[in-house]
Amino acid sequence: MTRPTVIIFNPDSYRGDVLGHLGNAGAVTPHLDALVNAGGVSYANAFAQNPVCTPSRCSFMTGWYPHVHGHRSMKNMLKPWTPNVVSELRRAGYHFWWGGKNDLFAVEKPEDYLTYCDTKFRPVSNEARGHRPLEPLPAGDPRRGAFYAGVMPRDPGAVYHDGNTAFVEGAIERLRQDDGSQPLCLFLPLGLPHPAYAIEEAFYERIDPARLPPRLAKPVAGGPIPFLDALREVYGSAAIDEATWREVRHIYYAMCCKVDHLFGRLVAALKELGRYDDTLIVFLSDHGDFTGDYDLPEKTHATLQDCLLRVPLLIKPHRGCEVQPGV
User: What is the pLDDT of residue 74?
Assistant: First the structure.
């Protein structure tokens, strides 16, 4: 049997509850929902082992808890001798193509990536047209503490930077060029929907704010997690109004919608090339995001709320792999 193509689609900071097929009426995720409805599996209670990027990625790429080899921070990444999914796939003969961010392996210069993978894709350009880039908020604007950036308005002649789309397009082109001489793994650790919260108007308009679930309230002062009180003070949460938090949530859901759109483009290319059935697809995130819950943005290094640790995990097996599909 021909070994399957493997795709690891790995958005950053994607909450596990922002999925339409899991009952969230505010989520616009038709392509991820379709994957589950067409033979894939979605795990409704998948939890990351750490609420920040590097420790979580080191965990799911090795199968170790973060404390096993001290992967507790953003600084201690995997070393060349560490057994992991990437090294095992390469040992099995796979060409490992990597298009996206790191937060996983210890590298000091660009060529160091080739210690770990066969191709580290770098797009020639990540310029896109159709929306106008955003101006930074002025100093002193309380929305800065919420990591709010805004909505990029439509402007057909404007140029903005869109590395996420460039990486997905690079993966699609790699599929088109593949000669079948070596089994292929595409690794897409994208930057979305990581804050700052910014999105193109085209995706923003797809989200109905009336359908978004309410924020979780901030506990009373002196509650069970003083660390979060300290964070709220650092971010200036007391000066951030409800309208801003609602807007942050609206934009975040639109960012997730864009992730779904990019995922759908990759799936469409697999089907067009006749490779979909023989491809194993894994979609998972490293952690979630407060998105205004508890009057906080982003995530923390030190707390374990569900919105931070519950993540999406969807698997579409390749042909010949028995599966009970659904949620």
Answer: 87
